[in-house]
Amino acid sequence: MTIAVSGALQQLFNSADVAVVGQFAGSNALAAVGTNGSLINLMINLFVGLSIGTNVVVATLTGEGNREGIRKAVHTSIALAFISGIFLAVMGWALARPILGRLSTPPEILDDAVLYLQIYFLGMPFVMLFNFAAAILRSQGDTRRPLIALLVSGVINVILNLVFVAGMGMTVDGVAIATVISSAVSSLMLLSFLKHEIGPLRLDFRRLCIDPQMMERIGQIGIPAGLQGCLFSLSNVMIQDSINALGAATIAACTAALNFEYYTYFVANSFSQTATTFIGQNYGAGNFGRCRSIARRCVWLGVLCTGLLSAVFCLFAHPLVGIFTSSAIVAGLAVVRMYIITSTEFLNAVVEAMTGILRGFGYSLVPTMVSILGICGLRLFWLYAVYPNWNTFPSLMSVYPISWIVTSIVMGLAYLEVLRTLKRKRGYSVTSRREMLKRVAGAMHLHRIHIHRI
Predict the structure, then answer these.
(1) Which of 70, 54, 74 is nearest to 62 (CA)?
(2) Fewer Cβ neighbours under 10 Å: the N or C end of the chain?
């Protein structure tokens, strides 16, 4: 639940960014910020996926009691965060205008969109450091300190937004600068926490290096996870291209509605991260009965919590959208998107939970392959085969729930197959803890009877 609160809190501060831009800088500035969302995710998801690999590897090593392995994983991960952050900063600055120019970005918002993206990517080293450091702490079940860092940085972000945009008259540049500064604060806080740890998690900057074997272990989980995120984002970038072609008002509407989708996503993703961490730990300790129990609870709680939050957002859609825009046209389109996508986010909760469960068992490639076919493939098919013949905004938005339905079914079947494979491969019976205790007790009883007869 703390992970869900962290995600919701992070999105609350992001929503404050969007509200400040929409109310003080206008719809075009709002659209300029919004058109970058899918592109940012596309460029950073591979490395964010590697941080998921860090979570799984450190959690598994913790279950195994491998203290030296944990030390190597920590220092390899932080070194990787530095390198990937610098790489993304350079790439984002250099490629901002060429990529946005190819995405049908309307001319009236292109310059602002490029400015926002270039400044935003200058903060990538801090974003990467936060993701990897948070993954290390969460692998131990420590979600409190990442939450504290998000709270502090979020407050700073909101204050700086008001100072730069409302007070100093800046537009997208003010929002981007505020984001970079707040990201620096949150990442430095987590590095300080790790530096003062006692035990194998303690960070020593003199020991920062890439350990080849540990990098391989992290990559086995993280690269498929990152590729899955990249493919998600690639399909979303192509959908964004179609949204851009519908004009600045539609872009602004999607930017406003996305805020509520992000809230529900973070709730769903929190159960995915929980499943990855605790299944990884119990899998490392050989406790398969508990792994199955964790998986079942994460799916049902994810669906329930995400569904309830989505229902609240849709019930109050009109007043909530009014927080971000005063344009009736923009607000109307945003509500349409909420009714189609936000209302069905519980389906995405199934996909997220199953993805986290499979990664916890070390099967990171399985959800990647399922997502390539079920989400990315279906969305691209919809864009090129269905949407041209049914060229409306609701038609374009319908691809999201349809792809979630198909993928959630296939993910469930993949999970059942993984359980059967583990049972055959490792020789463990995937039973509940109570069933295992009954079998042990029965065996002990038979043993006592045998001794008595002798």
Answers:
(1) 70
(2) C
pLDDT for 328 beyond 50 = yes
Question: What is the residue whose two structure tokens read 């929002």?
Answer: 175
DSSP-derived 3-state class of residue 35: coil
Phi-psi label, residue 341: left if phi above 0, alpha if psi -120 to 50, beta otherwise: alpha
What is the C-alpha to C-alpha distance for residues 69 and 88, in angstroms, rounded to an integer?
28
With a cut of 50, say whether residue 451 has pLDDT above it.
no
For the chain, the first-to-last Cα distance in angstroms comes to 55
The 3-state secondary structure of 155-196 reads: HHHHHHHHHHHHHCCCCHHHHHHHHHHHHHHHHHHHHHHHHC
- Under DSSP, the state recorded for 385 is I
pLDDT of 307: 94
From CA 206, how far away is CA 350, in angstroms rounded?
42
**Which of the pair, 283 or 128, is modelled with greater confidence?**
128
Is it the case that residue 363 has pLDDT exceeding 90?
no
Asked if 200 contacts 74 with a C-beta cutoff of 8 angstroms, the reply is: yes
Question: Closest Cα to residue 4, out of 305, 453, 276?
Answer: 305
CA 427 – CA 288 distance, rounded (Å) = 11
Q: Could you give the CA distance from residue 265 to residue 210 in angstroms, rounded to a whole number? A: 32
Instruction: Read off the amino acid at residue 295.
Output: A
Spatial neighbors of 152 by CB under 8 A, at least 6 apart, are 185, 186, 189
Retrieve residue 172's tokens: 């997208």
Domain assignments of the chain as residue spans, ordered by start? 2-450
Most confident of 223-237, 253-267, 429-443: 253-267
Using the predicted structure, report yes or no on whether residue 192 has a pLDDT greater than 90: yes
> Under a CB-based contact definition with an 8 Å cutoff, are residues 286 and 62 in contact?
no
Per-residue pLDDT at 14: 64
Question: How far is Cα 358 from Cα 20, in angstroms, rounded to an integer?
Answer: 39
Burial readout 287-300 (b: 16 or more C-beta within 10 A, e: otherwise):
bbbbbbbbbeebbe
**What does the pLDDT read at residue 10?**
60
